[in-house]
Amino acid sequence: MRVADVSGLRTVRGVVLDQRSRAAVPYAAVVLPGQGRGTTADANGHFALALPGPTRLQVRSLGYEVAEVQSPLGNEELTVLLTPAAYALDEVRVAPAPPDPVAILQNVIKNIPLNYEQQDYATEVYRHVRVSNFDTLRYEAESVGRLRVPAGYRHFTRGFLMHEDGTDYQVQQQRVLTPRRGPESASEVGGGTQGLAASAADPVRISPLFVARNLRKFTIKLDSVRQQGGEVQYVLSFAAKQANHRSTGTYLTSVYQGRLLVQKRDYAVVHYEALWQLDTASYNSTARKNAGRNNLLEKLYAQVFSADRSTHVVDYAKGDNGRYYARRSVGVAQTAGRELRNRQPFYYQSLVEQFFRPLP
Fold first, then answer.
1. Domain-wise residue ranges, the chain
2. SS3 state of residue 287
3. Bridge partners, residue 37, by sequence
4. Across residues 315-328, what is the average pLDDT?
């Protein structure tokens, strides 16, 4: 795997728009093909990415065709137009009355025991990690390991008082492409752990969204119904009405929202996208109250954030046993703020790509 040249980087800024409406496309993924680098557009479609020169970029968002563009030579803002996928399809199913999105998700939940593994299972994991701070590459590594998921694992935080069984991840081979120059900082990930950890790579298994009693905690909408490759597919969007531990599966979250691609034939989720944002007001308040007290909370809350968000994209595939598994997981975290002890600013971008292969 090649490591991108990080000398002579310049920041390229751009905006992602819907080709038809010219409306902003929020949280589109902007990546450098084959290099394991990228970023995510903000809620207004704007993005910024450090590049070594004119570079080919791929821009993608659920419901749109993938766009390939070249970064500009000068300092002008790059405008990327995404074509809605529905307009590019040969067949689009137009129903006289749109299906009920809540009923669709209820069917997804009802069919989870049939569609997804419920017992202990093991999978081989290829993992690629890349961390940069401002324009400096701080760490990059790739590894192959083995992940064991116990039957009772259903919560990222392992349930009440962490009494549930957790996953076991063992690294078997590792290649460090860029070694760390200092200790790992908690600021690198911030609140984005649920998009980056191997234990969080299967949201159908652990997200509160896929528990029937939690549906009332979400706003669920049907974005489109489409037909592709002989399959009728539903595109659903979801958003936690009140982002808390019961609706997000983690703590100190202010936003949890995303999209699902559901096959009508078996009500299996084959694609998942999610966005988390840290509750920076609550986090920063705790950090400032404990600054200088030399206690455990001061160590846990050692920084303040001006921004903290992460995205998580998962593709599911059907295995030899007829059940779906998380084949590919891509998490991107962006954190900005400053350390409290030395007042050093930071702007971390962390990317974790994971590919899974079920083991017998």
1. 10-88, 101-358
2. helix
3. 32
4. 95
- Please give the Cα distance from 235 to 261 (Å, whole number): 5
DSSP 8-state assignment for residue 355: E
Query: 356 forms bridges with which residues in the sheet?
Result: 125
Does the pLDDT of residue 96 top 80, yes or no? no
How is 297-331 classified by DSSP, letter by letter? HHHHT-EEEEEEEEEEEEEEEE-TTS-EEEEEEEE
Max CA pair span of the chain:
64
Q: Kindly give, in sequence order, each residue whose CB lies less than 8 Å from that of residue 179, ignoring residues fewer than 6 positions away.
A: 139
- In angstroms, the CA 338 to CA 189 distance is 14
- For residue 1 the two structure tokens come to 């795997």
Q: Do 238 and 209 touch, CB atoms closer than 8 A?
A: yes
Q: How far is CA 73 from CA 19, 30, 35, 53, 54, in A?
A: 23, 18, 20, 7, 6
**pLDDT tens column, 126-175:** 999 999 998 889 999 999 999 999 998 888 776 555 567 889 999 999 99
Do the beta carbons of residue 256 and residue 276 sit within 8 Å? Answer: yes
Q: How many CB atoms lie within 10 A of CB 322?
A: 8
pLDDT single digits (tens) 323-360: 999 999 999 898 999 999 999 999 998 999 999 999 98
Question: What percent of the chain is modeled with pLDDT above 70?
Answer: 91
Model pLDDT for residues 7-66, shown as the tens digit of each residue: 457 788 999 998 988 988 887 888 888 666 778 787 788 888 888 778 899 998 877 788
Assign domain 10-88 to its CATH superfamily.
Carboxypeptidase-like, regulatory domain (2.60.40.1120)
DSSP string for residues in 213-261? GGGGGEEEEEEEEEEETTEEEEEEEEEESS-SHHHHSSSSEEEEEEEEE
Which residues have C-beta within 8 Å of that of residue 72, sequence separation ≥ 6? 12, 54, 78
- pLDDT at residue 94, rounded to an integer: 52
Q: What pTM did the predictor assign?
A: 0.77
Arithmetic mean of pLDDT, 181-204: 82
Neighbours of 77 (CB within 10 A): 11
